[in-house]
């Protein structure tokens, strides 16, 4: 008897009454279905590229683990251990209107929506969020397929990112070792195998013409998706041996040294995928490959090289037409820079076009760099996998503009590269000496390859011999010491290799010896012996006359350049040359002429004459030059060099060397003499009141005395004329947080604007008053600025209409600082607050209001500009009914407690609620109180924000009572002094100072107008 349960409920049967044994047709059916599934799976896996000896065993393995592969006719499942949550920076919904899509796409969209609903990837939604959708083509060889994507760009701005780190690509490639077989696995719609927490699904909502939906699985396009997927895969594969499989988001590569080893590793990975319920895409999986593409690289047993599929793109890459095209090309090449020796130096011309404010000019150097990078990338060096059981070798070299390094190891008697690295020098580094550049290259290379060499003994190879003695030096320069100490934690030895054997790192400029080989003593010609100076410095010519003290002439500065490192001790074996053969003449203005050589003793060799006349007195500089020599002094090509070729040698090898000949410094100890020199070189018309830096540079080439730089600085700072007439870095006092009023019209600012053109009513000025809290403005046209006129206008048009204010702020204008106005304020208990002299920031808001007033009047006045007073009421209405940008309310609303009726909207009837007197009073009171509180808070926040922003670059002027200061002159003529004074500081109050002027009158001055007098 067979019993079938046709319901969804569990049915219990009393086994004591009937003997039962389970027999299930489902098991038989499942067996048949499994066989069909295996056959379908095998047909989808590409066995054509799999070696014959591996096919049978791979089929068995895939059959055993057929459930780890996804099937088209079955819904895609999710993992059983990881669920993703989404967090946003705020709770304001992101709602973006849908894009308009082609009508032809709608059928495909509906088809995919229905499939995703059936597969449980999406569900119907009532979320307030919405992101637009797009249909983009998939990469497919057979037929055109489409992918439905959601544009989450606006949502991504609010989604808090997942900080789980992605693996470093170069580390993954290095860890693969010398594997023989590779299999790449690809998860089917990897992101869709991660479920989203129910509370987070609302964020992923989108709409189509068929409805509003949200994702149940992690979608493509979210900024957290890649990192989340990496986290999930890392958790899934945790515990597996590190040399079995390597993960990068949805790319999995399984390696093996032999057939048996590779099958074992695949089985371990399949077992883990089954355990975590993760599904693979059989069509994209590739098994038992001897060479695979992984993360844009070709990986094989031989090593690593760029993806061959990119070669065609590189070959046909168009010449960049602008900076953006150049940036894209450099970024593309930069991905494969580890395969390109000397990458930084090659790409330097292209990178110059990407600098800030650089003009885009495509020249021959850019074209050459472009072509060279393309050629190098299409024929790359195969990089080896690092063997951490062998010793690493770092080879370095430096040129004038860049440095490069190669990490290598010895395989079967050959040094094979593991990685290349290079970088350009900064402008400051390019000015360093050769030995510093070479050491900087070693320092940078060791730190760059730190993951390989730290904790292991390795070798550093350089073609700069002095570096081999670096750690034996007793007193190296401080710069060398710092770099040396910084790499002492590493265990390495330095080996010297000749330049011709150091071709791997960046090639350095070397002396061109081909021309020198042709030199013959008989080729002596009359030429000027020259040394080309560095930069734009003026070259010194030596007089034809014999100096009185020739033995005191000496070389003042020698700056060794890149070319100096290739110089050797040139042996001038030309003592037999006659004077007429050495008749040096001036051929051009670019030569430094050493005519004194003509007057040497006839028995003295040219070599001795040069040594006598050109002496390097700085021992450290001499040692630096000597240590920079690379070529052997025994080279035969230097045995015979005529004096006539001295110019060519200098031009070629001393390109950036500056040799300055000058008389020794004059030592001064007498203070009166020093004062006289300072006066002569500063105060006189030929001195020109130079600044301390330029004056010191001028004097240090002639004189020398104790504390010379300090005494020059003190003298210049105490010069009264310099203090009055020169622009200096001025201090600007930090802004102060002022008290915000709590009531309307509690604090009012007042000012007078004009004169304007006289109107028909004889008005020429306007008095403006503004409430500091509400920003309500009152503008009153007046005939003149007399005290009585201004006082009458303020009383009639403001005080009698709005009541007296508690505080009235104004500048020091005579219309406000007089007996009439002060009497009215005293009678009405109004406290007057005056701004400091020439410091309009005290009433800054009103000053900005004047700007708005002038702009308004210019737009409406007639051609004669004599009707401006008729437009004043309209301006006041317009300003007071417009929301203020700081507190957000209209000034009218804060004063009268109601929203103003806009004249342009009178036709729009807006019924007001009906109140009785009591309710209206309560409503008005509540509205005024609440709006004023909020407006005051907005004002305070705005002040704090502006103060924090403004005070970032401000610094205070530190003054004490009794100090002398200069005051900046306002409204001066062009040739007038900038400052007047000095005056004595009597009192200091915050940012203001009380100063006693030349008439013994006390004036209140803001510190921004002051300059300290340094005696």
TrEMBL record:
Pfam families: Integrase_H2C2, RT_RNaseH_2, RVT_1. GO terms for biological process: DNA integration. GO terms for cellular component: DNA polymerase complex. Its EC number is 2.7.7.49. Residues 117-299 form the Reverse transcriptase domain. GO terms for molecular function: nucleic acid binding; RNA-directed DNA polymerase activity. Residues 737-899 form the Integrase catalytic domain. Residues 527-537 have a biased composition (Polar residues). It comes from the Eukaryota. Keywords: Multifunctional enzyme. InterPro entries: DNA/RNA_pol_sf (IPR043502), Integrase_cat-core (IPR001584), Integrase_H2C2 (IPR041588), Retrovirus_Pol_polyprotein (IPR050951), Rev_trsase/Diguanyl_cyclase (IPR043128), RNaseH-like_sf (IPR012337), RNaseH_sf (IPR036397), RT_dom (IPR000477). Residues 527-551 are annotated as: Disordered. This is RNA-directed DNA polymerase. It comes from Tabanus bromius.
């Amino acid at each position: 008897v067979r019993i079938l349960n046709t319901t969804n409920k569990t049915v219990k049967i009393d086994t004591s009454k009937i003997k039962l044994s389970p027999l299930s047709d489902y098991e038989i059916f499942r067996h048949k279905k499994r066989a069909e599934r295996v056959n379908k799976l095998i047909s989808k896996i590409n066995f054509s590229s799999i070696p014959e000896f591996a096919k049978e065993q791979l089929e068995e393995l895939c059959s055993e683990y057929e459930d780890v592969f996804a099937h088209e006719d079955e819904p895609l499942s999710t993992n059983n251990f990881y669920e993703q949550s989404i967090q946003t920076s705020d709770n304001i919904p992101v709602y973006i209107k849908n894009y308009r899509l082609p009508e032809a796409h709608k059928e495909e969209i509906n088809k995919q929506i229905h499939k995703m609903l059936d597969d449980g990837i999406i569900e119907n939604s009532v979320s307030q969020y919405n992101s637009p959708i797009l249909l983009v083509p998939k990469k497919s060889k057979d037929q055109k397929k489409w992918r439905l994507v959601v544009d989450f760009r606006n949502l991504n701005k609010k989604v808090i990112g997942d900080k789980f780190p992605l693996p470093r690509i170069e580390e993954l490639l290095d860890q693969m070792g010398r594997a023989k077989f590779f299999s790449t696995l690809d998860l089917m719609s990897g992101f869709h195998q991660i479920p989203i927490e129910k509370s987070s699904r609302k964020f992923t909502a989108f709409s189509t013409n068929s409805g509003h939906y949200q994702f149940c699985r992690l979608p493509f396009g979210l900024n957290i998706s890649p990192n989340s997927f990496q986290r999930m895969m890392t958790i899934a594969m945790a515990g597996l041996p590190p040399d079995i499989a390597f993960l990068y988001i949805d790319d999995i590569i399984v390696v093996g040294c032999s057939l048996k080893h590779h099958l074992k590793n695949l089985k371990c990975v399949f077992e883990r995928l089954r355990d975590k319920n993760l599904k693979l895409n059989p069509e994209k999986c590739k098994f038992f490959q001897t060479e695979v593409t992984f993360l844009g690289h070709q990986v094989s047993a031989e090593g690593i090289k760029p993806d061959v599929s990119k070669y065609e793109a590189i070959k046909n890459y168009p010449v960049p037409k602008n900076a953006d095209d150049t940036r894209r090309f450099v970024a593309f090449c930069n991905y494969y820079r580890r395969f390109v020796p000397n990458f930084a130096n090659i790409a330097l011309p292209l990178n110059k076009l990407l600098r800030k404010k650089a003009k885009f000019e495509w020249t021959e150097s850019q074209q050459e760099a472009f072509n060279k990078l393309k050629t190098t990338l299409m024929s790359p060096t195969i990089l080896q996998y690092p063997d951490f059981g062998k010793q690493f070798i770092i080879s370095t070299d430096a040129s004038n503009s860049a440095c490069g390094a190669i990490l290598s190891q010895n395989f079967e008697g050959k040094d094979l590269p593991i990685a290349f690295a290079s970088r350009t020098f900064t402008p400051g580094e390019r000015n360093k000496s050769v030995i510093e550049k070479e050491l900087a290259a070693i320092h940078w290379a060791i730190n760059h390859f730190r993951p390989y060499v730290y904790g292991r003994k390795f070798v550093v190879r350089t073609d700069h011999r002095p570096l081999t003695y670096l750690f034996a030096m007793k007193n190296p320069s401080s710069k060398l010491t710092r770099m040396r100490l910084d790499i002492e934690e590493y265990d390495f030895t330095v080996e010297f290799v000749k330049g011709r054997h150091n071709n791997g790192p960046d090639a350095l400029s070397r002396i061109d010896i081909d021309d020198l080989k042709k030199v013959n003593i008989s080729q002596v010609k009359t030429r000027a012996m020259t040394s080309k100076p560095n930069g734009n410095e003026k070259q010194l010519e030596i007089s034809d006359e014999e100096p009185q003290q020739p033995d005191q002439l000496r070389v003042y500065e020698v700056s060794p350049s890149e070319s100096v490192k290739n110089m050797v001790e040139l042996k001038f074996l030309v003592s037999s040359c006659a004077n007429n053969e050495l008749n040096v003449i001036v051929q051009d203005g670019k030569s430094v002429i050493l005519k004194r050589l003509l007057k040497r003793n006839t028995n003295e060799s040219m070599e001795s004459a040069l040594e006598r006349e050109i002496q390097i007195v700085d021992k450290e500089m001499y040692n630096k030059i000597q240590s920079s020599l690379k070529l052997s002094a025994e080279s035969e090509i230097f045995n015979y060099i005529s004096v006539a070729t001295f110019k060519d040698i200098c031009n070629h090898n001393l390109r950036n060397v500056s040799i300055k000949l000058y008389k020794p410094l004059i030592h001064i100890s007498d203070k009166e003499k020093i004062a006289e020199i300072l006066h002569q070189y500063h105060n006189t018309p030929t001195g020109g009141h130079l600044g301390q830096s330029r004056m010191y540079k001028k004097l240090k080439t002639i004189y020398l005395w104790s504390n010379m730089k300090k005494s020059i600085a003190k003298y210049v700072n105490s010069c009264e004329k310099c203090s009055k007439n020169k622009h200096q870095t001025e201090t600007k006092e930090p802004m102060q947080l002022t008290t915000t009023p709590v009531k309307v019209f509690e604090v009012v600012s007042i000012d007078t604007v004009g004169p304007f053109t006289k109107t028909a009513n004889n008005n020429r000025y306007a008095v403006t008053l503004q409430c500091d809290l509400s920003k309500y403005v009152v503008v009153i046209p007046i005939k003149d600025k007399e005290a009585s006129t201004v006082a009458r206008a303020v009383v009639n048009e403001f005080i009698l209409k709005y009541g007296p204010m508690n505080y009235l702020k104004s500048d020091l204008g005579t219309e406000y600082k007089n007996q009439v106005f002060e009497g009215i304020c005293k009678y009405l208990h109004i406290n007057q607050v005056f701004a400091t002299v020439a410091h309009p920031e005290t009433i800054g808001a009103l000053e900005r209001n004047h700007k708005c007033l002038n702009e308004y009047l210019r737009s409406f006045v007639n051609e004669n500009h004599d009707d401006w007073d008729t437009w004043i009421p309209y301006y006041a209405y317009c300003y007071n009914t417009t929301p203020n940008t700081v507190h957000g309310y209209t000034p009218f609303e804060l004063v009268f407690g109601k929203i103003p009726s806009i004249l342009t909207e009178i036709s729009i009837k807006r019924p007001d609620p009906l109140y009785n007197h009591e309710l209206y009073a309560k409503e008005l009171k509540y509205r005024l109180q609440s709006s004023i509180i909020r407006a005051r808070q907005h004002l305070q926040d705005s002040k704090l924000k502006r103060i924090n922003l403004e005070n970032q670059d401000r610094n205070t002027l530190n003054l004490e009572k009794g100090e002398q200061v200069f005051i900046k002159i306002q409204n001066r003529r062009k040739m007038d002094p900038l400052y007047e004074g000095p005056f004595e500081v009597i009192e200091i109050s915050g940012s203001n100072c009380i100063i006693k002027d030349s008439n013994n009158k006390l004036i209140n001055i803001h510190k921004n107008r002051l300059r300290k007098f340094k005696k």
